[in-house]
Amino acid sequence: MAKETKKTPQDESKKQDQLKNYQKDHTGKPLTTNQGMKVNDTNNSLKSGERGSTLLEDFLLREKITSFDHERIPERIVHARGSAAHGVFELYEAIPEYTKAGIFNDTSRKTPVFVRFSTVAGSKGSPDLARDVRGFATKFYTEEGTWDLVGNNMPIFFIQDAMKFPDLIHSVKPEPNNEIPQAASAHDTFYDFVSHTPETLHNHIWVMSDRAIPRSLRMMEGFGIHTFRMINDKGEAHFVKFHWKPILGVHSVTWEEAVKINGADADFHRRDLWDAIEDGQFPEWELGLQIVPEADEHKFDFDLLDPTKLIPEEMVPVKIVGKMTLNKNPENFFAETEQVAFLPGHIVPGLDFTNDPLLQGRLFSYRDTQLSRLGGPNFDQIPINRPVAESHNNQRDGHMQTNVPKGNTAYFPNSMSGGCPHLSKMSEGAFHSYEERIDAKKIRGRSESFNDHFSQPALFYRSLSEWEQAHVADAYTFELGKCNQAHIKSRMLYLINEIDGDLAKKVADGLGMEVPKNIDQPVNQAIGADADVEKHQPRKKKNYLDKSTALSQAETKFDSISTRKVAVLAADGFDHNNYEKMRKALEKKGAKLMIIAPHGGEITCNENKKHAVDAAIATTESVLFDAVYIPGGEKSVKALLKVAKFTKFVNEAFKYCKAVAADNEGEELIDNSAVADHKSDKAVFVNAKPDDFKKAIAQHRNWERMKVAETIAV
Ligand code: HDD
Questions:
Q1: What does CATH list as the number for 82-385?
Q2: Closest C-alpha residue for ligand 1 atom 27
Q3: Fewer CB under 10 Å: which end of the chain, C or N?
């Protein structure tokens, strides 16, 4: 029996009410054809005799198989792999001085949202922990129409002009002759492109950082990337950049873990998001704005229209204006997560675009792609895509029209329908494009103000902590180590050297190569054949800010263990007292303890109570947890020592710098592991207070352990 549907607070939104009209509940219902005719056999086709051939007449067979044959639609050309959830956006304070958009003026509103997170390069079935940018697309169902903020978890993009997007994507996707590698940038064609397109270097160094391998979708930032406009009711404009700041802070796994997680649980991020919402631990982000007066457009060392540049928060602080909470999983993956269509062109009065050439191209691409992906122009009638604001216009017909428009007019102006649907004045809430003054020659080219490709990658690298920098060097070494073409690696080393000499040296050492002193200049092939190549050479890096703390994960929040997963290694006879003390202390703060035992089912503690096993050791891996705890109990620990994977479990937790704790006899497992020589480590605890363990888990990792960890084989 399906669960009884109760109306919970997260079901109460205009969007949820609307979606309910389209939901189908099969509970207690007879199986029918699409036409509603009852069926008495869905297991056997119609045959000419018991052992005879199947008849063409079998309309039941044909309906069932035809539907099955067409279950798949083309996957997204980028961002194919994704997971989504419903939620709500609430405004903290009205900002009428910047925008007239209702969503930014009415603090009593709970605007329904649907958010889809994604990786970029891999196919729909690719593993979650690929080293990649993460998509962060938010659909706000506002009362004035739908607004889509289609961003990423990095504040900049690879290229400056939409014209280059197919080249970028073709270079990173599996190579066209053999369709290798899947969901990976570590191959020649990508680096061939990057090494010839220095504008990619800023986004690329972010991809080499830990930002590209998040611990959870709930622990990453989001960015609208482009500079947009906000328009107030006087028609005045401000530039704005959008930021999502996760309440849980920004945390990542290490590359080695990512590789293992992909094998142990390819759905790691998808499952984590789903489970958190099912457990009522709703993911939250605050929305921040960087606002720049129009008058300050040219006051920066970079161009605000260049999507490969961020505005350091030290230069323009992020003003927090509201909070988004994801509180409901989709009812159906295909109907909602797969069929949702985000369009950067979906904006509402009070917001507008700028001339960022990447944004301008996106305004075309996203509507266009839905035509083949969702089959025609009526994709906005699919329930997940329907606005909650009423829509009326004279667009008609086409594949899968599901509305039944009444009347005999489908044109404007008309008198036969009383002029309806009628136009609205701006004072009645109509959209009006910002009247930007334009006086220019029509050219195919790029502004010289877009030519600085090294200053911001260098700022990013300088802003990272030592452990983050080490991860970046390792990532470049791994990625280039997977390339076969020496000239491509050499060009990359030359360009990395322009960002940071020390970084280039480390990567070159790892590759067993020299940093080249000269290569043919990094000719910017982003410009056309007739352009003045000299004029478009990338500039040497500038230093307009030494460090930006917001760029480093070492500066994020470390105050919560909420939703952290702690593996409890235990077998029959484990110490109930130890376990309960730890469980209560950690669960009170939102962590999830999971018992990992030699077998599934149940185990019995030293007080003869039965405890459900969350996973048998054979079915799980250390990399799927944030910390490890071993309670005492002589019999239990003896059993754990007999299975080598428990010792490996501890070794791996230690290697990946996680907190490890043991009580009483549990120490014997530590003594049997690589941790034995490191009991004084600040995140290793023997018979310590649960509170100390808790603080270490909140720290995410003890990165000071990295050098020691390198020596541990697992
Ligand atoms: Fe894009 C999907 C983000 C540049 C063309 N993009 C897509 C999605 C995200 C982004 C999050 C997935 C949406 C979903 O979950 O359905 N894309 C970005 C960002 C960009 C960007 C942050 C730069 C700032 N994209 C970009 C360019 C083009 C596209 C320059 C083409 C000229 N993107 C697409 C697309 C997709 C898409 C092919 C695939 C599926 C879809 O649109 O609906 O049209």
A1: 2.40.180.10
A2: 362
A3: N
